[in-house]
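Contributing new records

If you add data, match the layout below exactly. Sequence lines come first and carry their own label; structure lines follow with theirs. Keep one chain per record. Anything else will be rejected by the validation script.
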Amino acid sequence: MKRIFLLTVSLLFIGVGIVRADKDYVITKSELPVKAREFVDKYFAKSKISYVKEERDFFERNYQVFFADGSKVEFYRNGEWREVDCRYTEVPAVIVPSAILNYVREHFAGEKILKIERERSDYDVKISNKLELTFDKNFKIKEIDD
């Protein structure tokens, strides 16, 4: 009986911990990690910030900055950018690795990079003709999806 009680209490605490772990908080720009603040100031200085959000998951913490023009930048806990989504405008070219930028310019002349996302093993890029390109960490094209 004692074991069942301890098991029930343990499961209850685990469940409460999981439920509380997935939280979103609106924060100020000054509460972003330094690298993230510098990134926003450097590449989106002219853009008006709508709001900044901190997402706390069980083992992770991420940040998102939403701009009035519909653009969004996501950051990892350390302030490194994870995703830049400019929706209606072009991602600043200096953010995009040169090999990816050159590939898009060579194979899709005139198209703009609207979104770039970097993961552990690859980069995902969405261009203005609605194609999605996936590059490996060495910037070699892996996939083209429409």
